[in-house]
Amino acid sequence: MLIAVASKSGTVVDQHFGHAERFLIYDYGGGNPAPVKEVQVDKYCSHDPNHPFRHPQFNTIVSALQGCEAVVTAMIGELPKQELQKLGLTPIVTSEPISVALKGAHDAVSGSLLKTDE
To answer: Where in this chain does the record put each Dinitrogenase iron-molybdenum cofactor biosynthesis domain (predicted)?
Structure first.
């Protein structure tokens, strides 16, 4: 399972989805997360409190995260969160160390899949 993490430090989930300029992609298989790649993106957020949904920036980020099943971030706006969910990406909000957050994301997505199959 590929999971994207918004992190500036590289050790803790410490980036807002809209402020992230990179996402770290991990493969979480068998309980052993392995870094796969780092993708650079343009910030989604324009720092305008009344900004509309920014489709071009959002779509570019989603393309960069292709193949991921979850996006782990320190914060995310409600509209981008809903749009990610519509695309089948599970947004996870946390500020935990990446290793802990990856397990939580894996468990959350796996749990969602089990509920869907019931």
So the answer is: 10-103
